[in-house]
Specification:
With 103 residues, the chain is mainly beta. 0% of the residues lie in helices and 46% in strands.
Length: 103
């Protein structure tokens, strides 16, 4: 199984990472796994989920859109390591989770 994480490049939690293990919801509402308190972000803005062997991101009919690699998405989009995700003023980078010990 893929083991990925999101690195927060720009946003209120800049520098933090979150493991992608299942459903991750983004939005202004505090019920979301990643809460972005900004007027450019819808209450329920986007989500990432595992579909088969792939992580996909979906825009949840947000007003201002969800962007992968600076392109607005209109349907489920498969994510790849190195992709950037922009939601309102926040930007995330998809990284592979480190596996195994160093050294």
């Amino acid at each position: 199984m893929k083991s990925w994480r999101l690195f927060t490049v720009i946003g209120p939690d800049s520098g933090k990472t979150i493991s992608i293990t299942g459903l991750i919801r983004f939005g202004r509402d505090s019920d979301n796994e990643i809460c972005i308190r900004d007027t450019q972000v819808s209450r329920c803005h986007a989500q990432i989920e595992l579909v088969g062997d792939n992580f996909v991101i979906m825009d949840m009919e947000s007003t201002n859109g969800t962007f992968v690699n600076d392109k607005r998405i209109s349907q489920s989009t498969q994510l790849r390591v190195g992709d950037s995700i922009s939601i309102g003023p926040a930007r995330f980078l998809v990284l592979e989770e480190a596996t195994g010990a160093l050294g």
